[in-house]
Amino acid sequence: LCRGLEVLYPEVGNISCMYVPDCSNYREKITHWPEPIVKFHGALEDAKYILIMVDPDAPSRSSPIARFWRHWLVTDIRGTDMKNGRIQGQELTPYQPPTPPAQTGFHRYQFFVYLQEGKTISLLPEENDSRGAWNMERFLNRFHFNEPEASTQFLTQNYEDSPAQSPGGGGNAPK
């Protein structure tokens, strides 16, 4: 999953394929920070891209009934902007920071970048009703997206949970 994408938050830096550390209150800070800087250095300058951020572990890894909670969905991102970390385009789902519920263990926050190839991307009315339990696979199939151009993830848990605790699915290494 960790292929060619950087996700940077202020003070923490690039957290691609990492656990967000508990020190310096980083876990609490990312729940309040604005959208991260997402960079895909391999982007084609004259192409357009789509960025998806999801939590496949909502509400917990042991019971992901709201799997693929949609945290961010942006289309029509110019390749030059993607290279420089300026996520500007049509925001179909505004950014929502990582907010894992207390006592649910670690959550994976996954980022995917797809080449848009001139397609007009939209959400169906029922997809706009809720961010949770999003059928991401159906969405990707509808627009004939196969493999992402780049992807990454990071793991974090609720900042009120002890780093030693891992109820609800635990702190396994990123998968």
Structure write-up:
This protein has 175 residues and is of the alpha+beta class. The protein has a single domain, classed as Alpha-Beta Complex (Phosphatidylethanolamine-binding Protein), CATH 3.90.280.10. It is 13% helix and 27% strand. It has a five-stranded antiparallel sheet with strand order 6-5-4-7-8. A three-stranded antiparallel sheet has the order 2-1-3. The protein starts with 5 loop residues before the first strand and ends in a 19-residue tail after the last strand.
Labels describing this entry:
175 residues; alpha+beta; Phosphatidylethanolamine-binding Protein; three-stranded antiparallel sheet; disordered C terminus
Helix and strand content put the structural class at alpha+beta
CATH architecture: Alpha-Beta Complex
Order of strands in the sheet with the most strands?
A: 6-5-4-7-8
Number of helices: 4
Report strand %.
25-35%
Largest sheet, if any?
A: 5 strands, antiparallel
Shape: globular
CATH superfamily: PEBP-like
Oligomer: single chain
Unreliable spans: 165-173
Organism: Loxodonta africana
Family: Belongs to the phosphatidylethanolamine-binding protein family.
Pfam families: PBP
Protein name: Phosphatidylethanolamine binding protein 4
Short description:
This protein is an alpha+beta fold and 175 residues long.
